[in-house]
Amino acid sequence: MALAAGVATMRFSVFRKNLRAFRDRWYRGWKKWLIDIALIVLVFIAVRAYQQQGVISGQAIPVNGQLLDQTVIDWQAYRGKPMLLHFWATWCPVCRLEEDSIQSIATDYPVLSIASWSDDTAEYMRQQSLDFPTLEDNNGSWAQRYGVKAVPTTFILNADGGIEFVESGFSSEWGLRLRLWWLRI
């Protein structure tokens, strides 16, 4: 009888030891997972902060020039309703992911896009069936005036031409639409 009790006690202690080892592994894994997520979030925030460092705020600089369709930009025509000012490039893969969203938003809101550091933007837009208003900025002078370091960068302006939101990197269509809608109400 004492032998059976000793075996049962030994089995229980082995079970308890295995349970503690599992708990410690899981807890250590959970903490590591949480630390990894926190580091990824911090890197993401740091990259976005760097990309938006030096971006202008306050009142938008009036953009002038000739669009790809040969019309002259009338900055005052954009006043009175929220608008999207979108900096992008033909060579940018993230910009390609966003172009359908920008095309769709342009049917409902005023959009002015600036293709910076791009060559043959008109041909690219024709091939992609894009027709939103676009100013070609081959040397990046408009991007420099706005403090844009990376494309895509999107400015969402209020009805008075003030910069309300700035997004660098990929932005979803619904995220952009929600911000424009918010400024409209």
Structural class of the helix and strand makeup? Answer: alpha/beta
**Low confidence ranges:** none
N-to-C order of helices and strands: HEHEHEHEEH
Q: Summarize the biggest pleated sheet.
A: 5 strands, mixed
Assigned CATH class of the largest domain = Alpha Beta
Shape: elongated
Query: How would you write the strand order of the largest sheet?
Result: 3-2-1-4-5
Rg, Cα atoms, Å: 27 Å
- The CATH architecture term of the largest domain is 3-Layer(aba) Sandwich
Strand runs, count: 5
Tell me the span between the first and last alpha carbons.
82 Å
Task: Note the main attributes of this structure.
185 residues, alpha/beta, 2 domains, 5-stranded mixed beta sheet, 5 helices
